[in-house]
From TrEMBL:
It holds the Pfam family Transp_cyt_pur. Gene3D superfamilies: Hydantoin permease. It comes from the Eukaryota. This is Purine-cytosine permease fcyB. Residues 1-32 are annotated as: Disordered. GO terms for biological process: nucleobase transport. The lineage of its organism: Eukaryota, Fungi, Dikarya, Ascomycota, Pezizomycotina. The keyword ATP-binding does not apply. It is found in: Membrane. Residues 1-10 have a biased composition (Basic and acidic residues). One of its GO terms (molecular function) is transmembrane transporter activity. InterPro entries: Pur-cyt_permease (IPR001248), Pur-cyt_permease_Fcy2/21/22 (IPR026030). The chain crosses the membrane at residues 78-101, 108-127, 184-203, 215-234, 254-275, 296-319, 339-360, 380-400, 406-425, 446-465, 485-504. It is a multi-pass membrane protein.
Length: 511
């Protein structure tokens, strides 16, 4: 998934010479023998390498293979984050607050900005582990949750990426269908988006990295066009019809939703920096991630808030374009004719760019599940998951708004529980002791994970008690007029139970 996470391909001169950050190589390891590495690869991996398909696994990047930073490195990473987070699906999330939940623009905007910034702070924190460890985010998780419990997070992140990829594919398919005047069906549009994402994840990660450095410009220009077209129709005076009690519940729910969409990047954040040297200041890594990701997401969420007010106050647009996410985007370009359709296609390209990291990531996550999975080349898993999310997109294409509303909180529940464990393990138990990053694949040198596993399950119990979804409403949600408190109750339960459990585990087991 991760564009900056590209290893130097074995036996491929063109990939070997490619520098993911345009950094100056500091690799002086004379023992590096491409011939021996080529022999260690399977026949399938050698065949895939001939086509410049990435076949390297999840191994730690040793210090002598890291890259020294140049003056432009931070700018490149800022632009990469900005491009990836300047995604069309964030506009859809923004519209949920004003269109589906019935909040005023002011309420929705405040929830979007502060909820998103809170989530991006966590993403920035997790990104700092990349240079420190040379390991991907969910490999680093083994030092906090233990070797085996951390695999739960890998599995959950696979489902997270499948869900996001499905959503992106459906939105892209709907837009392509509307732009073509129905000549392209939504099903065909879904296949086009999914196939393009797969091709980029399999063969085009070098091109994708370069693309992300420049993609923000056409994306931002299209968003400016969208704002100029739809902005005059934003209804800043639309008022909610809820009582104060129900209004507060909607505010809490939407705030949690906006936190969750940012948290989805946390299990991936360190992956982009595994080639950075360990002496990089943590605050610099944090700042690049926070600013790039945060700015892009706030822009798109606020635009979505505004377009949502157009749909909420002007039923004629619903009649013309329908109440689908694809219809939402076409509403924004209503007065622009053919140029508006062209801009909508650019939005689809942004969806593909946002989809590609997820397609690549799922292959990595599968390999993190165990040694058997590591023997399977990553492209096989990338292909398998692409088939899965394409099929899911086809089945759920008519219920996308409801999937959005139900799916995003589930991401937030597990990620916030995991983050609490990471923070408490780091600050209370590990920071003074330090980390042996070379032990990433040695279970006997990592925490047993019993305390983390139990705390994770108890945290999920808290999320269930506080959640409010169409399929289930917890006890606390029911007594608070339908507030979705799953994110916060889950985090609270985990924060309370993990420290004593970890103290007991260290005393009884010794690690």
């Amino acid at each position: 998934m991760h564009p900056a996470d590209i290893e130097k391909a074995h036996g491929s001169p063109s990939m070997h010479s490619f520098n993911p950050f345009e950094l100056e190589s500091t690799n002086t390891d004379s023992s590096h023998d491409p011939v021996l590495e080529l022999k260690s690869q399977s026949k399938l991996e050698r065949w895939l390498s001939r086509f410049n398909v990435e076949v390297h696994g999840v191994e730690r990047v040793p210090v002598n293979e890291r890259e020294s930073l140049t003056a432009s490195s931070s700018l490149h990473m800022f632009l990469m984050w900005f491009s990836m987070a300047l995604a069309t699906n964030n506009i859809i999330v923004g519209s949920l607050g004003t269109f589906l939940m019935g909040l005023s623009f002011k309420d929705a905007a405040l929830c979007a900005v502060f909820g998103n910034l809170l989530g991006v702070v966590i993403v920035g924190y997790m990104s700092t582990w990349g240079p420190q460890s040379g390991n991907r985010t969910l490999i680093v998780s083994r030092y906090f949750m233990g070797y085996y419990p951390s695999k739960i997070c890998c599995a959950l992140n696979i489902f997270t990426n499948i869900g996001y990829s499905m959503i992106n594919s459906v939105v892209g398919g709907q837009v392509l269908s509307m732009v073509s005047g129905g000549q392209i069906s939504v099903l065909v549009g879904i296949v086009v988006v999914a196939f393009t994402s797969w091709v980029m994840a399999m063969f085009g990660m070098r091109i994708f990295q370069i693309y992300e450095r420049f993609a923000w410009l056409p994306q931002l220009m299209v968003l400016c066009v969208m704002l100029g077209s739809a902005g005059p129709h934003f209804d800043f005076n639309i008022h909610t019809k809820y009582s104060q009690e129900h209004l507060n519940a909607k505010r809490v729910t939407y705030f949690s939703l906006c936190v969750s969409i940012a948290l989805a990047w946390a299990p991936l954040a360190a992956d982009y920096y595994v080639y950075y040297p360990p002496h990089v200041k943590r605050w610099k890594t944090f700042a690049v991630t926070f600013l790039g990701c945060g700015k892009a997401m706030v822009i798109t969420l606020l635009i979505g808030n505004g377009i949502g007010t157009v749909l909420a106050s002007s039923p004629s647009y619903l009649v013309k374009y329908g109440n689908t996410p694809g219809g939402l985007l076409m509403t924004a370009y209503d007065s622009l004719g053919g140029f508006g359709k062209f801009c909508a296609v650019i939005n689809v390209l942004a969806l593909v760019a946002n989809n590609t990291p997820g397609a690549y990531s799922m292959g990595m996550n599968f390999q993190m599940l165990g040694s058997w999975f590591q023997r399977v080349p990553q492209p096989i898993f990338t292909t398998l998951t692409t088939v899965i999310y394409t099929a899911c997109a086809m089945g759920g294409r008519n219920s996308l708004y409801q999937i959005f509303k139900s799916f995003l909180p589930l991401i937030g529940y597990w990620v916030i529980i995991w983050i609490v464990i990471v923070l408490e393990e780091d600050f209370f138990f590990r920071r003074a002791k330090g980390y042996d990053w070379a032990a990433w694949d040695k279970p006997q040198k990592l925490p047993m994970g019993i305390a983390a596993g139990v705390a994770f399950l108890i945290g999920w119990g808290g999320a269930i008690v506080g959640m409010d979804q169409t399929y289930y409403s917890g006890v606390l949600a029911q007594v608070t007029s339908g507030s979705d408190l799953g994110l916060w109750v889950g985090a609270g339960f985990t924060a309370v139970v993990f420290p004593p459990l970890r103290v007991f585990e260290k005393w009884y087991i010794g690690r």
